[in-house]
Amino acid sequence: MDNFRKHINDFTRHLAPGITLVAVSKTHPVELIKQAYDAGLRDFGENRVQEMTEKQAALPSDIRWHQIGHLQTNKVKYIAPFVHLIHSVDSLKLLEEINRQAIRSKRTIDCLLQLHIATEESKFGLDETELTALLESETYQSMKNIRICGLMGMATFTDNQKLVRHEFAGLKVLFDATSKRHFARSEAFTILSMGMSGDYRIAIEEGSTMVRVGTAIFGVR
Ligand SMILES: *Cc1c(COP(=O)(O)O)cnc(C)c1O
Question: What is the distance between the alpha carbons of residues 68 and 40, in angstroms, rounded to a whole number?
């Protein structure tokens, strides 16, 4: 298993210092996650609530768990006590439930708003108009137990690097505009979560601060 540790060290070392690596551990067993933990990783991403809660109970408590996949309102309560960052907030209704459960857990829960940037139909996320409407709503502005820390987006799944770059660049423009317009007095709005195994290099070149990498760390699922 020294090879795995070396692979992780090599991977983290070649990322620029300001980039946070979220190791996407979905479908992988706790034994493998523990090896990645022993190699120094602390941020892990899961897309299914039940899987995350089971793993959270079985693994060290200083792991920062990231919810990266689509989140159903009725599942928020299971992760609210411990989740570190929810990347996939795509409606005001979901944000309201996160706020409600955060109050119950006596926490403030950090969230990213997921933007729809891909040309594909199937991906979740807000468009620009919905983003503005959410941030300008009284409902959002009255929430005390959530904190919006940035944006997340997934590029189109394609070999067309020009398209992928264009989509990431567009999200960076929107991130900067949103930061200026809605978070000028907040220090929390700093995270731009974009880039997966196939496209994290392009994402970083286009301004990503957080990459969500599964396959390139753990191998194919
Ligand atoms: C699975 C997943 C990833 C990681 O994908 P890889 O291609 O294995 O790196 C990143 N983000 C989200 C939202 C995912 O569901």
Answer: 21
Asked if 157 contacts 120 with a C-beta cutoff of 8 angstroms, the reply is yes
Neighbours of 157 (CB within 10 A): 13
Place of tokens 């997340």: 152
**Is the CB of 124 inside a 6 Å radius of any atom of ligand 1?**
no
pLDDT (tens digit per residue) in 62-71: 999 999 999 9
Atom of ligand 1 nearest to the CA of 69: 13
The predicted model scores a pTM of 0.97
CB 135 within 8 A of CB 115: no
C-beta of 55 in contact with ligand 1 (< 6 A): no
- Could you tell me the CA-to-CA distances from 197 to 111, 157, 209 in Å, in that order? 22, 11, 15
Q: Which tokens sit at 56?
A: 């959270």
For residue 168, the model assigns a pLDDT of 98
Distance CA 99, CA 145 (A): 5
Say if ligand 1 is within 6 A of residue 215 CB: yes
